[in-house]
Amino acid sequence: MRPVFILFDIDGTLVKVRQGFMPRLIDVLLRKLGRDTIEVGSTSYAGRTDRDIFTKLLKANGICTSNFEALRKTYVETLDEMLSPADLDTIPGAAEAAEWCYENSSASGLLTGNFREAAFTKLHRAGLDRYFETGAFGGDHYERNALPEVAWQIGRQLIGDNLQPEDMVIIGDTPRDVACAKHFGCKSVAVTTGPFTREELRKHQPDLILDSLAAPQEWLGALFND
């Protein structure tokens, strides 16, 4: 395979946090913050960065954004305390793809909206953390479209200065994953394992749409015509 940097989203792509966990987490988080309720809004969080989400949460609740770091720290600590392996599911095919890319690609990593600490908490509980060491995270920038450039700089250190955006593959389950790949000129792989259907994802014209990340050598070969 040609030198490529393969980047995975987490939620909806590698793992799914079970439905009942987030309300429990929010309840504990509220108690730690000394609040009874918090306005979370109705906008979908799918594909957004944690920096974006938490900044808007602060503004929606009339809390000064100077409290961002305190909220971030409390959140990642609470997630680490509460999340158990029973609270999430590894998506079928994800472990196979993560392992194969880790062992066979020039480099692999993460491109996720999660804060770095939250990302590795989830991966550790799922037993997938051994396949990932680096990437671009939701704390690196407010806009997800800025994350591929962060990852590109990392990829150049890992693979070499000749790494081009088109040598990067961004894998995710939302239109925002596809959009950020296109924004920086990367290849995009959309998976139907999240909240969006194949038809919904197709509208955003990813380079490839998959129902499963199983057999990665096959779909990566098709992506690069190898």
Automatic annotation (TrEMBL):
It catalyses: 2-phosphoglycolate + H2O = glycolate + phosphate. One of its GO terms (biological process) is DNA repair. It is an enzyme of class 3 (hydrolase). Pathway: Organic acid metabolism; glycolate biosynthesis; glycolate from 2-phosphoglycolate: step 1/1. Pfam families: HAD_2. GO terms for molecular function: phosphoglycolate phosphatase activity. Its EC number is 3.1.3.18. It comes from the Bacteria. GO terms for cellular component: cytosol. InterPro entries: HAD-like_hydrolase_sf, HAD-like_sf, HAD_2, HAD_sf, PGP-like_dom2. PANTHER family: PHOSPHOGLYCOLATE PHOSPHATASE. Belongs to the HAD-like hydrolase superfamily. CbbY/CbbZ/Gph/YieH family. This is phosphoglycolate phosphatase. It comes from Cyclonatronum proteinivorum.
